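Researcher: Re-running this chain for the archive, since the previous output was lost when a drive failed. Same request as before.
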Amino acid sequence: MNRMDGGNQSIVSEFVLLGLGHSWNVQVLLFMIFLVLYLIIISGNIIIIILIITDPHLHSPMYFLLANLSFVDMWLSSVTTPKMITDFLRENKTISFAGCMCQILFVHVAGGDEMVLLVAMAYDRYVAICKPLHYSIIMSLQRCIGLVLTSCTTGFVHAMSQMTVVMQLPFCGSKEIDSFFCDIPLVIKLACVESDNLDILMNIDTGAVAVTCFILLLISYTYILFTVLQSSKTGASKALSTCTAHITVVVLFFGPCIFIYVWPISITWLDKFLAVFYSVITPLLNPTIYTLRNKEMKKALKRFKSYYMGSKGNT
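Model: Regenerated structure tokens:
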């Protein structure tokens, strides 16, 4: 897919990604680090999904939503990380126009999906703690599927609203993107149009989704906190343990996103660090946080190990 606008504007068929480093030794080191991190992300989230599917004790709304979150985490990381890893060993770090547009599309679909999923998980905890007697009725299978479909739809609509604008932009001159993947603010800067107002408009679009979800999360956890403080110490301790894990994930994911898309000042090295954080570090930390802080997940992992190790021992 190419773009051409006027006689003095050349056809753009690819962009150049400047990546994270310029020294060969640094890039080799980063290649090894991010390859290991990516393999941990994929394996960790796959383990969570397998445990939730195979263990009857984890067949509940909370773990159903968690399995979907793990899937989205793998998707979000896979959109950018494999390309970044292979580019560390390449001298010519190019990406086609179509590839660039696909990265933008899938990053924003997965990002919007994850934001709404985190709100759904907060809603699940709100119902479990604040309305425990009605939990099974409110959080039915149909409701859970509806929440997941809503998150997918929101992510898709949000991403398409951005893509319809970006796809129409004429590109000329510089083709260098000072990052390891294509992101909307960086691509807009390369367009042959006055980009300041457009950049603000696109950031408002993304920021509106992020800030709205973040406010809904704050409201949910505020209600939960007040309810927990009024309940018994045993119940409060268990509830706070679960919610602490959720809140940690929320802060780690929303913090960088809101800073990149809502904060008006752009600092290249900081934007790169935050982009790495939400596309690599957050999908890495999610399985760690949810498995290490969750007793049911740890028990399920032990049951899984003993069952399959026992089966192997008997054969």
